[in-house]
Design a protein that fits this description.
Helix content: under 10%
Order of helices and strands: EEEEEEEEEEEHEEEEHEEEEEHEEE
Number of strands: 23
Radius of gyration: 29 Å
Number of domains: 3
Shape: elongated
Largest sheet: 8 strands, mixed
Structural class: mainly beta
Number of helices: 3
């Protein structure tokens, strides 16, 4: 994967400083390719820029503020983080960092290692990892907000995702599809604070042909968030006694995910399954599902009520593209009470300049109750 310098702030004409250097192993003096370099502003600890070292351990970071105290944090898997404080002069507008010699971490050491910051990006083998804690968002942020903060990652209105212009074919949570594999349910429901890492990697369907591969994203949750629950309740009222209300609740626990949904309204909104209601009632509530919108072509007033349950259970610990090992089930119950008010005004000409007007008012009522169960393994 190609990673260029990545910026965490808008363009500014005063950001003209440049920093360059290289990073190596302190004992064997070999280059640490794909090491993570991040620069923070010391005054408020805000992230300015982050990048990866090239194949020769070299890095070059541009558009940095001048005459400002900065902290360069270098990190690499299996090594201790290293902080270097720098200030780029207004005269030279360039800072050359002496070779950074990284020390291997000693897990047996009793010395306390204080980690001052979390590397925002790192390569872990062939997997590109983004650390969620390095991105500061508001407390109500969800995974979609986090992905939008990662450069070269685009989240489209229909829930599809592209990385460097390449479509992500599969979005997983802890290595498994989330609630049937619908991206929107994961992107707009899972809190950013529950996420440990966003992992981007290639999956080869045919190991003998690496060109036959697809890109995937895995949302790795924090250890204490493996079992969680979340939901949303919404309602609205309007003129002429119009109303709408809906609620969703999702429980995730290890191999099992269960989603509950219920709704009622008299504004001609209808849905056909539990998944459609869950998609429409996400916590983020952006880009509401077109499957659950008022249908103004329907006659009369329709009082709609529905409820359903959606279940996913994974029988395989590490599912693959050709062996998902998952049971998906959806039970949905809905009812609709339709009232159509009719008014007719008939004018009859009787001759001799006489006429007769007939007024008629009547209403028709109908009730429809249906349910369906679907399952797939």
């Amino acid at each position: 994967m190609c990673i260029t310098d990545i910026y965490a702030q808008k363009k500014d004409s005063t950001l003209v400083g440049t920093l360059e250097g290289s990073i190596r192993d302190s004992v064997y003096n070999f280059d640490l390719q794909s090491a993570t370099l991040a620069i923070y502003r010391v005054s408020d600890s805000s992230l300015i820029i982050f990048s990866l070292a090239d194949n020769y351990g070299a890095f070059n970071m541009q558009k940095l503020p001048l005459d400002t105290l900065l902290r360069l944090t270098a990190s690499y898997v299996g090594y201790k983080n290293k902080d270097i404080f720098i200030r780029i002069s207004k005269d030279t507008k360039k800072y050359v960092v002496p070779t950074i010699n990284m020390e291997r971490s000693n897990n047996d050491s009793m010395d306390e290692v204080v980690v001052k910051s979390t590397a925002p990006i790192q390569m872990n083998g062939d997997t590109l990892e983004f650390n969620a804690d390095a991105f500061h968002l508001d407390k109500n942020a969800v995974v979609e907000d986090l992905l939008k903060k990662i450069p070269n990652v685009t989240v489209w209105g229909d829930g599809s995702i592209t990385v460097n212009g390449k479509e992500i074919k599969s979005l997983k949570v802890d290595g498994k599809p989330f609630m049937g594999g619908n991206n929107k349910l994961a992107l707009q429901n899972i809190a950013k604070g529950a996420v440990d890492k966003i992992q981007v990697y290639q999956v080869a369907k045919n190991e003998s042909n690496q060109m036959d591969s697809t890109a995937e994203i895995n949302i790795k949750l924090k250890a204490n968030m493996k079992t969680s629950s979340f939901g949303k309740i919404g309602f609205g009222i309007g003129t002429d006694s119009r109303y709408t209300a809906d609620g969703n609740f999702i429980i995730t626990s290890g191999k099992t995910q269960i989603g509950f949904s219920a709704s009622t309204n008299n504004v001609n909104e209808t849905s056909e399954d539990t998944e459609a209601q869950l998609r429409n009632g996400t916590f983020k509530g952006v880009n509401a599902s077109p499957e659950y919108q008022p249908d103004f072509s329907r006659a009369g007033t329709n009082k709609f009520a529905a409820g359903g349950i959606m279940l996913q259970h994974d029988f395989v610990d590490n599912p693959t593209w050709n062996n998902s090992g998952s049971l998906n089930a959806d039970y949905f119950l809905k009812s609709n009470n339709q009232t159509v008010d009719n008014r007719t005004n008939t004018l009859s000409l009787l001759g001799d300049n006489r006429s007769q007007t007939t007024l008629a008012n009547f209403s028709t009522y109908s009730t429809d109750l249906s349910n369906k169960l679907s399952a797939k393994y």
